[in-house]
Amino acid sequence: MFPSLLFPVATFLYSAFLGLGTLGLMLGRKKPQMASLQSISVIIAARNEAENLPRLLGSLAALDYPRDLFEIVLVSDHSTDNSLEIIAQYKAILPMKIIDFQDSLQGLTGKKAALQKGIETATNDLLVFTDADCEVPTGWLKAISRNFTDKTDYLLSYSLIKRTDGGSSFRLKNFERSIYYALAAAGLYFRRPITSSACNHAYRKSLFLKSGGFGGIGHIRSGDDDLLLMKMMPHIREAHFSAEADLQVISYDGTSRKAHHHTNIRRASKFRYFPLWLKLLAAYIFLYFISFYYALIFAPWETGAWILLKTGIELFLSASILLRSGQIRLLMLYPVQILLFPLQFIYYAVRGSLGKYQWKQ
After folding, report:
1. DSSP for residue 275
2. Tell me: the pLDDT tens digits for 287-301?
3. Of 282, 297, 305, whose CA–CA distance to 14 is shortest?
4. CB atoms < 10 A from the CB of 19, how many?
5. Alpha-carbon span 68 to 95, nearest angstrom
6. Coil, strand, or helix at residue 202?
7. Are 76 and 84 in contact (CB under 8 A)?
8. For the purposes of burial, counting CB atoms within 10 Å of the CB of 91, is it exposed (0-12), middle (13-18) or buried (19 or more)?
9. Do residues 186 and 24 lie in contact, with contact meaning Cβ atoms separated by under 8 Å?
10. Of 229, 230, 255, 324, whose CB count within 10 A is highest?
11. Is the predicted pLDDT of residue 359 greater than 60, yes or no?
12. Strands (E) located in the chain
């Protein structure tokens, strides 16, 4: 039963899903249209980021954008290190509003409270978000402004991860991240959000307010990106994804394997808050990956053609997003990921359902 029917049908459905994702990625591509520069508020919430802030603030100081057209709202979120002293050193060269946030906001947990404070303080309607452990390219704000037309309400942009300054971006994590970006782009095109990324997205303040902001999700420690996007989507006129070079942020995740592990648990733990259709999709992929290992180990000859179909559609989706982002060399990592990623997905799906992760205190 398994080799003759179950796995072929499951693979066909899995391949159809990835094919639909590739279609959404391709059809969702839109050329920038805005010629005039827009007023922008960049919002950053930072907790005990003294080690990372000089790199981020240095890259913001190098932005090729008129100083009178953007502001930086930097919220020190209950920091106990010397973050405020470091931030103050850049106040003379950056149009910056500094908030020492040591309070709490009713109904909001963790980073969302700091972001809420930053959004309330922002002067402009176009809000751009990144994280304290990031580095932005000089053309970042110009590219965002180009991509935000009069009808655009939401923009998700590509990012790469490095461990340290001078580190390589040729990592399995960046290959995996690219696939999630491809699915995120498809989700935006079909207006069914799958995921997002807080380190490099932008939306209108008016959209945030119209959708009720963090109301209803404020008690969840994470989800200021994907869960918020799912909440805002019914109110969004146009949402786009862009992987152009001027929009690509670098995020530094350090060398702590323990921190990486708990980050993966935290992200997987949000499963319970997803809409039903996305829960069913994730559950299906979970079961399919288990069946993939079973077929690979116990029935490789009977299921070989279907494994090839799975491989082909995964390669096509991977090449599509990696070509678009200029990171095609990461495709060389696919032979490792074809075996490793399903195992990782299964593990963190189970581990995330148990919760109990460590995050910044």
Report:
1. -
2. 999 999 999 999 888
3. 282
4. 13
5. 8
6. strand
7. yes
8. middle
9. yes
10. 229
11. no
12. 40-46, 70-77, 96-101, 126-129, 134-135, 152-157, 159-162, 201-204, 238-242, 249-252
Q: Which of 55-59, 161-165, 345-349 has the lowest mean pLDDT?
A: 345-349
Residue type, 39: S
Q: d(Cα 323, Cα 311) in Å, to the nearest integer? A: 18
| pLDDT tens for each residue of 104-161 | 999 998 899 999 999 999 999 999 999 999 999 999 999 999 999 999 999 999 999 9
Mean pLDDT for 209-226 is: 94
Domains of the chain: 2-25+273-353 (no CATH), 38-270 (3.90.550.10)
C-alpha to C-alpha distance for 57 and 44, rounded to whole angstroms: 11
Q: Helices (H) and strands (E) in the chain — how many of each?
A: 12, 10
State how far the Cα of 70 lies from the Cα of 8, in Å rounded to an integer: 54
Residue 72 structure tokens: 């930086």
Q: Where are the alpha helices (DSSP H) in 252-303?
A: 257-268, 276-298
Helix axes 304-325, 334-354, angle to 10 degrees: 90
Spatial CB neighbours of 265, under 8 Å, sequence gap ≥ 6: 348, 351, 352, 355, 356, 357
CA dihedral 181, 244, 159, 353 (to 10 degrees): -10
Count Cβ neighbours within 10 Å for each residue of 135-146 and write b for 16 or more, e otherwise.
Answer: bbbebbbbbbbb
Angle at 50 (CA atoms; ends 47, 51), nearest 5 degrees: 115
CA atoms within 13 A on the CB side of 7: 25
Task: Name residues whose C-beta falls within 8 Å of residue 186's C-beta, 6 or more positions apart in sequence.
Answer: 20, 21, 22, 23, 24, 25, 28, 194
The residue among 175, 197, 163 whose CA lies nearest residue 341 is: 175
Backbone dihedral angles phi then psi of residue 238, each to the nearest 5 degrees: -135, 140
CA 285, CA 229: separation in Å to the nearest integer?
22
| 43 beta partners | 73, 129
Burial zone of 150 (CB within 10 Å; 0-12 exposed, 13-18 middle, 19+ buried) = exposed
**Cβ pair 75, 103 in contact under 8 A:** no
